[in-house]
Amino acid sequence: MSTEETTIDRILAEIDRDELVQLVISLTELDSPTGCEKEIATFILNWFEENEFQPVKQVIEDERFNAIGILRGSENGPSLTLNGHLDTTMTMQPKGSVYIKDDKIHGKEVANMKAGLAAIMLSARAINRAGVRLKGDLIVATVAGEISVAPTGTFQETQDRGEGIGTRHLLANGIWSDYAIVADGSEYTIVRAQPGVAYFRITVKGDENYTPFVQRPENISDNPNAIIKMTKVIDTVEEWAKEYEQKAIRKFPWGRMEPKAIITEIEGGMPRIIPGGWREPLHASQTPPSCEIHLDVRVPPDMNPIMVKHDLENLLRKLPFNLEIEMFRSQMGYEGKGLGTDYLHSTLENCYERVFQAKSPAAPVGVSSMWTDTNLYWEVGIPAIKWGPCEIIKYPDRRTAEIDGYLKATKVYSLVALEICGEDKK
User: Fold this and answer.
1) 315 vs 215 pLDDT, higher one
2) Residue 350 sits in which domain range?
3) Do 353 and 235 lie in a common domain?
4) DSSP code, position 177
5) Which of 377, 301, 376 is nearest to 334 (CA)?
6) Model's pTM, two decimal places?
7) Are 68 and 138 in contact (CB under 8 A)?
C-alpha cells in the first residue's frame, strides 16, 4: 500500500458515525435563527479550540459572529475553505427533541444546515486527528446570516439582515483562501452557477373610508380601496413573470438554471403600528389606505438586477394609478469559471466517486436556481463550487438527515482537503 493510500486510510478511520450523530444533535438543539447566532457560534468556537484548531472570532454585530477554525499549513501551500452557515429560519428546537429513527436524524432545520456543519467540522478534525500535516491552510468557516432575509420598511432589526452578511464579513476581514467549497445543501451535486436576487416592494395607495360610505366606481383607477387596485398589479406582474422565467433560463454543461419571479407577500389594511409600538385597534370596517406586495426575482448571472427594475417600472407605470416600486435587496449571480474551478470540480468528482462508488449526479434545477454564499466567492474571484449533503427534495420540511449520506459527505470533504492542500510528508 502506498504512503498516499495509508494517509487516506488513517484519515477515514478517524471519521466516526456515532461522533457525527452526536455533533449533529448538539448543533441542531442550539437554536440559531438569523440574527441570533451567538450561542451556536460560541459552541463551535469552543469546539475548534478543544480540537486544536486555531479559533478565529469575527464579530459582525451584537449577538452574532462568525466562528472560524483553521488548521495551519506547513509550507504556504494551496488553501481551502469549507463554508457553512449557522443560521436557520425562525424555529424553536426544544432540548431533547432531536431523535434517531430508521438511520435518520430528525429535527428542525437539521438539513439546512446543522448536519452539514457537523460534516465539515469533523472532516477537518479527522485530518488533524490522523496526524496528517497539510501544506496549505484548511479553513472551516461557519458564518452568520446566509438565510434569505433582507431589511425593508420598518423591518430593520438584526434578524432582518441575512443573505450573505456573514460571508461578506468573512472575506472583507481577511479570511481568504485559494479555493472554497460552500457546503450548503446541493443534493450531493456539484453546482457551478447560481442566480442573483432582486427583492421588490410594490406599493399602491388608496383612501381610508368607512364601509357604508364606500363607492365602487366603474374604473379601477378611481377605486379608493388599495387592495382592489393591487389585484391589477398582481395580474400584471404574474403575466410578466411567466415571460421573464422563460427568458431567464440558462443551460450549463453541469446543469440547468431556471430563475423564478414569485410574489411572496401581500400586506394591506389594519391594524397599523405607530412609532413607539402602539397599535391601532383592528378596523375591519375601513378600506386600506395602502397595499403592498413583495416580489422575489432570481436573476441569471449575465443580468444586472437594475435591468429587472427598469423592466418592472416600464411595465407597471402604464397602469392607470400611481404606485411605488422599491428594490430593497440586490445581489448579482455568477458562474464559476476558469482552471481553478475546473480543478476543484474534478477533484471533488474523483473524491465523490471514491466514497460513493458512483458517478457524481447532475444538479437538480431547483438546486441550480437558488442564491447561496457561493456567489460571494465568485464575486471576489476565488475558485469555488457549491457541494453539500442534503435530501431536501426527498424531505422538503428539512427535518430529516440520512446518516449514511452525511457520513460519506464527511469523508468526501476530508479527501478533497487532502488533495487540495497537499500532505507535508517531511
Assistant:
1) 315
2) 3-194+334-421
3) no
4) -
5) 301
6) 0.94
7) no
